[in-house]
Amino acid sequence: MISFDVLIVGGGGAGMRAALEASKHSNLKVGIISKTSPLRSTTGCTGGGLNAVFNNSDDTDSFEKHAYDTITGGSFLGDQDAIDFFVKHSPDAITELAEFGAPFFLDSSGKISQRQGPGSSAPRTCWTLGHATAHALYDQLLYANVTELSMCNILELVVTDSAVHGVIAYDSLTGKLIPIAAKSIVIATGGYGRVYWSRTTTPLGCTGDGVAVCLNAGIPVKDPEFIQFHPSALVDSGVLISDAPRTEGAYLLNNRNERFMKNYAPEQMEKATRDLVAIAIEKEIEAGRGLGHELNSHVLLDLRHLDKNLLHGGRLSQTDYTAKTFALVDPLQSPLPIRPSCHFTMGGIDIVDYHTCATIIPGVFAAGECACLSIHGANRLGGNALPEVVVFGKVAGAAAALFALTAPQQYDFALDSALQKWQEKFKYISNKKSSIPLPEIRDRLAQTLWHNVGVIRDEQRLNKAIVEIDILQDRYTQTGIADTNHIGNTDFIHYAEIGNMLTIAKALTIGALNRRETRGSHFRSDYCNNDDTSFLKHTIITKEDNRYNISYRPVTMTKYLPVGVEKYV
Amino acid sequence: MSDIIIKVSRRNSETSFIQEYRLTYQPAKTVFWWLTKIKEEIDSSLAFECSCRSGLCGACGIKLNGHSVLACTTTLKLPQSSPNRTCTIEPLNGFPILRDLIIDWRSITDSLKIKSPWLSQQPNMLNTSIQSKEESAHIHSLAACMMCGICVSECPIISQGHFIEPFIFVKAYRLISDSRINNQQRQQILQNVQPYLAYCIQCGRCGNACPKGISPAAAITCLQQAVNSFQQS
Ligand SMILES: Cc1cc2nc3c(=O)[nH]c(=O)nc-3n(C[C@H](O)[C@H](O)[C@H](O)COP(=O)(O)OP(=O)(O)OC[C@H]3O[C@@H](n4cnc5c(N)ncnc54)[C@H](O)[C@@H]3O)c2cc1C
Ligand code: SF4
Ligand code: SF4
Ligand code: FES
């Protein structure tokens, strides 16, 4: 049996940073498994913005300001002690990335240039290339004493009586279902944006596997209902169109050729906040003023009146490239079909101690987008995710190593029986003819969530979603896979992913249904304001067999009290 | 609408073969879109890899009609010239294949550990002392490499067995261009890549195909010049 002292599950920024930290103990055997090569993780295809207080462009910026922006951006749902820790550690984490070789954009004096992002009170975002964080960490991983197994997927976290034994994984390369024993485990599998399938900007693998396996193993998920929607992604492919064109003066048009933002934010118009723009677009579409149908409904982003030089080599070159490559549209000739898309998932595996990234199961830690500390609260500031990933990846790796140093080696009937269960399952589903194709379940789930648990939510829709998810969960048990090969069975991987997405979808919908208020990214048209008396608290959802239980936990507030009723649409 | 025949090279642990799929042609769809369509509507056993589907991560390199490209950024055009409207999709050259179109990156990692010339250096070799804007721009243009492997697939020398992946030279050049590393480190990197430089025939195919506009061939020339000037001094 493969065994490690510390096993890292997930090779994005959080996983790689955790592995590097754990491997500093040369007497520990550290392994990292990931579904795709670490270079292809979300961390390998970001916008490349990272927030930290360096005072390179503004002497007056401070940890307090970064913390306060993060807290207000998250509508006071973030835990202030964790946020304080985060902002103080972010500069070192970014300096370290630069030392590892991530090339940051510099100012004329040769220091990292910092720009002001939306929701930030100072120029604080450091920019590097979008894939650079992943590549810098990967270069270090090659040096480190870490066994890297990419193309290896976690299927189950094996826990009995609050003791962790290891995981069951599918190794795509050998085609085997394998048990991996470990004394401690860091889950770092990224977000679950793909529950909305085609309506997300995230990579194909963001199916929340780690969150689901934790839920199945008895570890709660925190605040799953908080989903960040970016207002503009290409309607067909979900490829992100950044805020830049709106910042530069692009128009949003409905099917009557109206700049509809005048009805939602007459002063800011297209430059209104992401939340507001996303809600406005969805309202237009619901009122029948969109173009296209169903998941293809959209509005138009019009750049035709903008200066040509902005697009050709200027600040909108990336938009120009994206439009031409993925929508086959020249933005100077015709407007772009866009719609909001899920961009980031604030909720995740419930972390009970931010000093260690521990979960409620001793020896199981989690970091990165799959985890909820919570730093981002009800919404995330652009540029806060990547530093979170490296700061807390390091914390989790160190804590997992410490745990492994003193944990006894267990042997392991629990793994054997879990393995047997998966082997039987594989046999069963590969002999089974599906009554409904797997992708259809996935697409129906996405459609259900988009319409009922998307940008605009209310009691009736959320109840409807619960019913539909139950039906889909039932259908799922009747599906099988057509690919009977053992090696490289992407059909089987997708089968597992869809199961995980169904598991999370239910938790997310229950969280949204019970949160009878509007806060941050969670917009309830039947409860339009935030309700601090009843809901300034974290949603905690656990799952036992197929029963989901909801409870709440207070938010940690150290310095700042909420501002009262916030104005939403 | 006319039909199109997409021939895909399939490989599993037992056999390899070419499979033909006939579909109704639609304009303006990427190779990734077509592969997904085949997988979800005709044959779910087809295995390929894509992650970001936006040209950023480098996961989806394949060969379309013999040319190495990214599946997610390349539009499939109706092959007018071909009488039977056929196009072919194969895995990249120069890599071990895991299944169908999927490259085995795990083995690549292992070989990178052995081959990567600069890895004998200590980590953290880049201290953050300040750097000029011009130098930083130069480094950015090289650091744009996402290790998609397209240059490897296009390189005619790789199959001979004693060359190394062209993107490794891009990384080596990026490192020696960095004013923050010292001369000893620079020399060490050059020593490590030097044995391979002469195998390159400067055909330029790597750079012509690179989706990020990088020229490994030019990097190789610059490394050779740096080796020469080190030897002289
Ligand atoms: C288009 C886009 C642009 C962004 N831009 C920015 C930005 O500019 N600034 C910023 O701060 N944030 C940005 N973000 C957010 C940020 O990139 C992510 O939150 C962050 O990269 C997540 O890192 P991670 O390590 O937690 O997970 P990921 O990078 O997603 O890595 C997850 C890893 O887990 C593996 N994995 C998944 N499932 C399994 C399984 N079952 N078994 C084994 N392994 C598994 C994956 O293969 C992957 O290696 C952006 C996000 C997107 C989508
Ligand atoms: S040099 Fe270009 S083609 Fe080669 S791996 Fe890098 S990005 Fe790909
Ligand atoms: S120029 Fe050199 S490295 Fe590039 S493809 Fe030709 S032989 Fe290979
Ligand atoms: S899937 Fe990332 S580059 Fe094509």
Descriptive account of the structure:
The complex is a heterodimer of chains A (569) and B (233). Chain A is an alpha/beta fold and 569 residues long. Chain A has three domains: 2-227 and 344-413, FAD/NAD(P)-binding domain (3-Layer(bba) Sandwich), CATH 3.50.50.60; 230-341, Flavocytochrome C3, Chain A, domain 1; 434-554, Fumarate reductase/succinate dehydrogenase flavoprotein-like, C-terminal domain (Methane Monooxygenase Hydroxylase, Chain G, domain 1). Chain A contains 15 helices and 19 strands. Chain A has helices at 13-22, 63-73, 80-99, 132-143, 209-216, 244-247, 274-286, 308-311, 317-327, 385-406, 413-430, 438-452, 459-476, 490-514, 532-535, and strands at residues 2-9, 30-34, 49-51, 114-115, 125-127, 146-150, 152-160, 163-171, 176-187, 221-222, 227-234, 251-253, 299-302, 336-345, 348-350, 364-366, 371-372, 537-544, 547-554. In chain A, helix 1 (13-22) runs parallel beside helix 10. The longest helix of chain A has 25 residues, at 490-514. Chain A is globular and about 65 Å long. Chain B has 233 residues and is of the alpha+beta class. Chain B folds into two domains: 3-103, Roll (Ubiquitin-like (UB roll)); 106-232, Orthogonal Bundle (Fumarate Reductase Iron-sulfur Protein, Chain B, domain 2), CATH 1.10.1060.10. Chain B is built from eight helices and seven strands; from the N terminus they run ββαβββββααααααα. In chain B, the strands form two sheets. Chain B has a five-stranded mixed sheet with strand order 2-1-5-3-4. Chain B starts with a strand and ends with a helix. The model of chain B has no long low-confidence stretch (mean pLDDT 90). The chains are: A alpha/beta (569), B alpha+beta (233). FE2/S2 (inorganic) cluster (FES) is lined by residues 50-53, 55-60, 70, 72 of chain B.
